[in-house]
Write a structure and sequence with these properties.
It contains 8 helices and 7 strands; from the N terminus they run ααββααβββαββααα. The chain is of the alpha+beta class. The longest helix is centred in the C-terminal third of the chain and has 18 residues. The chain starts with 16 loop residues before the first helix and ends in a 7-residue tail after the last helix.
Amino acid sequence: MSKRPAPPTDLAVPSRAGARAEQLSLLGPGDIKPEVVAAVQLSLLGHPVPVRLPAELWHSWFATPAVVARFEAKRYIRRDEQCWPWLGAVSDTGHGSFRAASLPGASRRGTVPAHLFAYQLVHGVIPRLGWSGAEDPVVCHRCDSHGCVSPHHLRLGTAAENRSEWAYRHRDPAGPLADVRGPAGRTRAIARAVRIGMARGESTGLIDDRVRAAELDGLPLTLW
């Protein structure tokens, strides 16, 4: 398995961030000050209702080595041009789910999309000013593989761009979006292949072969 890179050091925040984040987690929506609400992110976890997360919570998680270490333990790092499979929990949409913290409140607060955590861990916290469905930034997969958590395969876009790309690329019978197992089935199959290889102590090359076989297993049959 490839050596995991050290957590980035350019995301440090004041030492008060952790305590402030804990205070925010105990507040209701009406108790948070307007300037904090302006920095709230709305994250979807395969459910129609977004989870509101103050930006200060994200900063506190990225500044906590134990949280970052738990995240790194759940992704398999490969070469930059390859997908990095998520090995942890998977949402209905096929995206990884990472429990950064256990917080009170409805809708699994503290559990976030793994690819969103991966992107912001490298690039910093993204300002999310609402949930317009079209104008607010979202993290898009260049590779179309929902279970990929490589920052090299993630970019910022809009929900409208993301939908447009999906509508165009899901017609490719050889692409990840055509997988007959669905996004969640594909993510789980790839993760299972990686875990088997790691448990057997196999080389990076052999695990790559397992990943490729798991990817091909879900492609639709064609007449040529």
